[in-house]
Amino acid sequence: EPTVRTELMEQIPPIAIFLQESRPKFPTAFFEYLMPIVVRYLTDVNNQVRKAGQEALLILLEQDLVAQSDIENKVCPILLDLSAPDSDDEYKVEAVNIICKMASMLSRTTVEHMLLPRFCELCSDGKLFQVRKICAANFGDVCNAVGQEATERLLIPKFFELCSDSVWGMRKACAECFMAVSYTTSPEVRRSKLSPLFISLISDTCRWVRQAAFQSLGPFISTFANPSSAGLYIREDGTLSIRPPAQDVNSNSCQPSNNVTVMSSSSNAA
């Protein structure tokens, strides 16, 4: 009965936390019994059961309850199978969504060696625009997960593809995450490659793409600033924030924020 399996999945995280806290008494219970169930339910025939399994997996990863060996030997292989070119469309969309959400929770080595090649393939998926849309929406998070070298070598070419995608929603998603992508690259790449690319988005034929680009203009410009002197930094969630200087906090800390707000307002008026 699918409802029973769904309910079971919802109970897995609290049980796993209990086993972790009581590890001397149950040293291998989670790895031997619970983790195989979570992995198996990622391919369940019932959509609701799969979603419950995916949510349970993300909670376990977020709580750092899954061993590195299980991630590399059990979780990643099944996600790679589900996101393969010949996989069922529904399974593929779900798998790429999980891959993108997992990227920020795993080690850089695991993401780069096991998931990044498949992510790059999915960015060019010509069959399902939903897959490309998920990749575009999470592009900044993946860049942040793998770092500057892999971003510039492997991801920037894919970002160029997505920024010129025939579906306007893809280009809009790229405009929205432009600051996060730029922050991961070197100043030279920002200047020589990303700046012309941003100009193409801000001049896009679609009104919604242009609006999203104008709203990202201030944050994108901020990535050119020296964080130590400008007081700008990127939080863990990928959002731009301001670290006010010790002196004259009230007058200085608001000015950059006001500039971004004015830029966004002018774009909306346009």
UniProtKB/TrEMBL annotation:
HEAT repeat extents: 115-154
Positions of transmembrane segments: none
Repeat in keyword set: yes
InterPro entries to which the protein is assigned, alphabetical: ARM-like (IPR011989), ARM-type_fold (IPR016024), HEAT (IPR000357), HEAT_type_2 (IPR021133), PP2A_Regulatory_Subunit_A (IPR051023)
GO cellular component terms given for this protein: cytoplasm
Coiled-coil spans in chain: none
Low complexity compositional bias, start-end: 257-270
Keyword annotations: Repeat
Organism domain of life: Eukaryota
Single GO term (MF): protein phosphatase regulator activity
Annotated region (Disordered), positions in chain: 246-270
Keyword Protease: no
Descriptive protein name: PP4R1 phosphatase
Organism this protein belongs to: Motacilla alba
Lineage: Eukaryota, Metazoa, Chordata, Craniata, Vertebrata
Gene giving rise to this polypeptide: Ppp4r1_2
